[in-house]
Amino acid sequence: MTSALPARARIVIIGGGVIGTSIAYHLGLLGCSDVVLLERDRLTSGTTWHAAGLMTTFGSTSETNTAIRLYSRDLFARLDADTGLSTGFKPVGLIEAAADADRLHEYRRVAAFQRLHGLEVHEIGPADIAERFPLARTDDLLAGFLVPGDGRVNPVDLTMSLARGAKQRGVQIIEGVRVEHVLTSPRGAVSEVVGVHTDAGDLEAEVVINCAGMWARELGERNGVVIPNQAAEHYYLITEPFPGVDPNWPVFEDPAAYGYYREEGGGLMVGLFEPRAAAWRVDGIPRDFSFGEIPPDWDRMGPFLETAMARVPITSEVGVRKFFCGPESFMPDLAPAVGEAPGLRGYFVCAGMNSVGILSSGGLGRVLAHWVTTGSADVDTTGFALDRFQPWQLDARYRQERTSEVLGTVYAAHTPGIQLTTGRGIHRSPVHDEIVGAGAYLRDVSGWESADWYGDPAARAQVTPGWGHQPWFREWAREHEAVRSAVGLFDMSFMAKFAVTGPEAGEVLSRLSAGDVTARDERVTYTQWLRADGRLEADLTVVRRTAEDYLVVASDTASRHVAGLLARGVGEADATIVDVTSDWAMFSLQGPRSREVLEALTDADVSHAGFPFRSARTLPVAGVDVLVVRLTYVGELGFELYVPANEAAGLWRALMAAGEPVGLRPCGLKALSSLRLEKGYRDFGHDIDDTDTVAEAGLGFAVAKNKVDFVGREAALASLAGPAHRRLVSVLLDDPQPLLFHAEPLYRGDTSVGYLRSGSYGWTLGGAVGLAMVDAGDAAVTADWIAGAAWSVDVAGQRVPARVSLQPFYDPASSRVRV
C-alpha cells in the first residue's frame, strides 16, 4: 500500500528488493529508524521475485566475500525468530562438482582458503556425490566439494521477513513511489545529497542509498554517478514433478556443464550459466517492468540446455513445467558496486549483484548499514568499491559486449592466464606501437593495453592458461634478471596522475598525507592517506615541484578513489585538481645500469651526489624536457620519467637505443610484480587494504611523526606506539616448484595465522614469494615470534615448507637502491 510521503528522513533507500530491505533491516538493528525505503512498485519486483534462491558460500577467495556470505547464511537461519516471518531457508547442503583437472586444483585452493575463514567444506569422491544426489551422472567427475551448511532460501519470503524486521524497528517502507533523481547541492569541490525528487513530491534527506537493481545505472547517471551494471538474460528450467525426488537433496552445481540443480515442487530446477550470454535492454530497462519475464531464446540456449541436462539425464525424460527467462544485473568485473560516490557526499550505492544478490544480501546489508552510520566500512572494500569504475564503462556497446562475455565466466574455470577480450583498447599508451613491435603480450589494465611480458617480436606472444610453470616463464625470468643485473624499461603510462596547483595546494596535500610532502621543492614523497581511524585510504607518491605545483601519482585502480579524496580534501581551498593521466606518459627505468642509460641522454648531473634518492627535477633527456624522479618499485637503482604524451615515442626509442650496449630489456607487469614482491614492496588493494593500519602494513617509516596535523594522525601514532599483533610479512617457499598466486593459507606450526595476499615467483630467490598478513592473537608479531615455529603454506591442500620474515628477502638494507 502506498503511504503518504514524509517531508524528511535522514536516510532514503531507493529500491525494495532483497538488498534494499536488508539495508533497512540492518539500519534498524543499529537503532537508526529515521529511514524511508521507497519502492517504485511492490517489494521484490524487478529481479528478486524470480531469483533461484541459492544460499551457497563456496567459491570465493576474498575474505570480505566469504564473510558476507557466511553472515547471510547465519542470518537467514535465525531471521524468522526475530521477525515472525520464515525465510524458507533449508540447509540441505551444496555439492560443487569438479569435472576437470584445472577446476579440481582451483577448488582445492578455494576450499583451503575458505576453511581458514570458517567454512566447513569437504572434498568427496564421485561415489559420494552419487549417493547424495543420485540422479546425477558422476562417472566422468573427478571430485566434489561438499558444504553441509549451504542450501536454499525463498527470495520473496526472505525479503518480506527483512521488511517486517525493518518496520518493527521504526523504518518506514513506502511502495508505489518512484524516485526520479537525487537532489544535491554544491559544496566547494564536491556536492552533497539534500533529498530525492519522486513522482509523489520531494523528500529531504542527508543520505541516499541507490539499491535500484537493474535501474541503478540510469538513476545514477542523472547525478553523474558511474554504475555500469547491465541486465542480462538468465535462465532456469523447472521439470514436472516425478517420483523419487527428495527435497532434502543438496544443491548440486556442475559449472563445466553450465548447470545447477535442486529440488523444486517435486521436480527439479535446472539453472543455467551459459558460456556466451545475452545482454537485455541495453538502451534502458522499461519503467513499467516489474514482475515480467523475457521470452526465451530456445535456439541460442538449446545446446547449453542439452549439456546441462545431460549431467542429470532424467531431466530430459520428464516433462518441462516452465522454461523461465528473467533479467539479472551484472557488472563488468563480476563484483558489485558498493560504497559512496566520489565527489558526491551522502550518495551510496549497493547494486550490480551478478546473480548472487540473495546469498550476499544479508552481509551487504550489514556492511552498508555500518558504513552509513559510522562513516566507514569495517571490511576490505577495495574489491567492490564504487569508485573503481570509469565513465567510459557506461557506453552501451561496451556494456552489451562485456556483459555477454563476463556472465559466461561465472561458471568458467578461473585458471591463471585467462583474459577477457571485450572492452579492450579503450586507452592506449603513447608508446603502444613501440611495445607491440617489441613483442609485448598485452594485458588489460583498467582499460589500458599494457605489456604483461615480452616474447619474440617476430612471433605473436601466446599464453596457455594453467596453474603450473608455463613455457613463457622463461621470457618473464629474463626480464626479471635483466633488472637485477643490468637495466629494464617499463611503460607505466596507465598510472593515475593528478596535477594539484594553487596557493593552498601544499596545505591540502599536507593535511591528506601521513608523510611530509611539503618539505622542499624538487622532492618526491612516498606516503599514505589515512582514514580518521588510522586505516589506509590510499598509497601513492606526491612530487613537490614548487610550493604551488604538485604531482600526485597513484595506481590505475585507485584513480577515481584518489580523485574523490582530492576533491573532498580541497573543499573550498584555493587549489585546482587536473587529471593529467593521458597527458603524460610515464616510463620506469630500473636496474644497476639505469644511470648509465640516463647519462647517455642528458648532460645533467644524475650521479648519486648530484641527484640523490627521492630527487625530482625537470631535465633535458634526449632533447625533451622530462620530469625525472629517482624512485624504485623493484628494489634497484632507478628513475621514473614523466614526459608529454606527444614526445613519449621518441624518448622511448632513445632509451632503448642508449640501453642496448648495457643489456636493457623492455619489461612487463609480470616482472614488475615478481621484482617488487622479492623486495616486499606493497600494492594497495592487493597486499594492503583499507582494513590495515600503517603499523600492520609495515609502513611506519612513511609517517612523518612530527607533523602537527594530518587525517588519522592520532590513530596512526597510537598504532605505531604499541606492539603489532597483525603484521604484513614476506613469505618464500622452500620448494622451487609450487606457485603462489593469492589466498593460500599460511601456517605457523599447525596453526593457521593468515594467508597470502599476493604471490609471484622470485627468480632471484629461487622460489615462489609473496606477502601475507599474519595475526598473532595476543602475542606480538616479532622476529622472535616468527622464529619460534616452522612455517608452511597450503597450496591446493598440500603443505609446503616456507620461510617468513618481517624484512624482505631481497636486499633488506636497501643498499642497492641508494647508490
TrEMBL record:
<dbReference type="InterPro" id="IPR006222">
    <property type="entry name" value="GCVT_N"/>
</dbReference>
<dbReference type="Pfam" id="PF01266">
    <property type="entry name" value="DAO"/>
</dbReference>
<comment type="similarity">
    <text>Belongs to the GcvT family.</text>
</comment>
<dbReference type="InterPro" id="IPR036188">
    <property type="entry name" value="FAD/NAD-bd_sf"/>
</dbReference>
<dbReference type="InterPro" id="IPR029043">
    <property type="entry name" value="GcvT/YgfZ_C"/>
</dbReference>
<dbReference type="InterPro" id="IPR013977">
    <property type="entry name" value="GcvT_C"/>
</dbReference>
<dbReference type="InterPro" id="IPR027266">
    <property type="entry name" value="TrmE/GcvT-like"/>
</dbReference>
<protein>
    <submittedName>
        <fullName>FAD dependent oxidoreductase</fullName>
    </submittedName>
</protein>
<dbReference type="Pfam" id="PF16350">
    <property type="entry name" value="FAO_M"/>
</dbReference>
<feature type="domain" description="GCVT N-terminal">
    <location>
        <begin position="432"/>
        <end position="707"/>
    </location>
</feature>
<feature type="domain" description="FAD dependent oxidoreductase central">
    <location>
        <begin position="375"/>
        <end position="429"/>
    </location>
</feature>
<dbReference type="InterPro" id="IPR006076">
    <property type="entry name" value="FAD-dep_OxRdtase"/>
</dbReference>
<feature type="domain" description="Aminomethyltransferase C-terminal">
    <location>
        <begin position="726"/>
        <end position="811"/>
    </location>
</feature>
<dbReference type="Pfam" id="PF08669">
    <property type="entry name" value="GCV_T_C"/>
</dbReference>
<dbReference type="InterPro" id="IPR032503">
    <property type="entry name" value="FAO_M"/>
</dbReference>
<dbReference type="InterPro" id="IPR028896">
    <property type="entry name" value="GcvT/YgfZ/DmdA"/>
</dbReference>
<dbReference type="Pfam" id="PF01571">
    <property type="entry name" value="GCV_T"/>
</dbReference>
<feature type="domain" description="FAD dependent oxidoreductase">
    <location>
        <begin position="10"/>
        <end position="371"/>
    </location>
</feature>
